[in-house]
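Input for the complex:
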Amino acid sequence: MPAKAAWLLKSEPDAFSIDNLLALPQKTTLWDGVRNYQARNNLQLMQVGDRAFFYHSSCAVPAIVGEMKVVAVAIPDVTAFDPGSKYFDSKSTPEKPKWFSPKLKGTRKYVKILTRDQLGVTVLKNSLLFRNSRLSVIPLTAAEVKVLDKLLAVGETA
DNA sequence: GCCAACGTTGGC
DNA sequence: GCCAACGTTGGC
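Predicted:
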């Protein structure tokens, strides 16, 4: 069994925040609406049990604000089939789906968030979070996760 | 609100 | 298959 992977998932808090997620009945959601191939490919690589960090983007203080766990691998993104959805894509059909959504469960909201500023002075500086600021689903290396855990441990005792 | 970086589209 | 035009993301 390979070690569990870790991911960073971006969401605009105005659209869907960590609080929105944790307020859901099962704290669970299908991660839909992603319309970028690189991000899509990453969504499809997610395995049950993988860790996922929730990142608030396009807001006053961009930061990792909590954590989730993958509870189901990606299934076709149904919002792409719905003409009424702003994520509708006529090129994606139930027969030939183009976009996918894994299921994520919120597990934790941080007391102290990890701001983009903080992350920028760690090894995360070399991650896709900084090298490709537009990518919304980012794989994290074990070394990067280690740094995050360290920062979190400090936050708890501070 | 601005703008840089990047992805996508479409004409050729 | 190239590349200009355009649209979007997201930090600031």
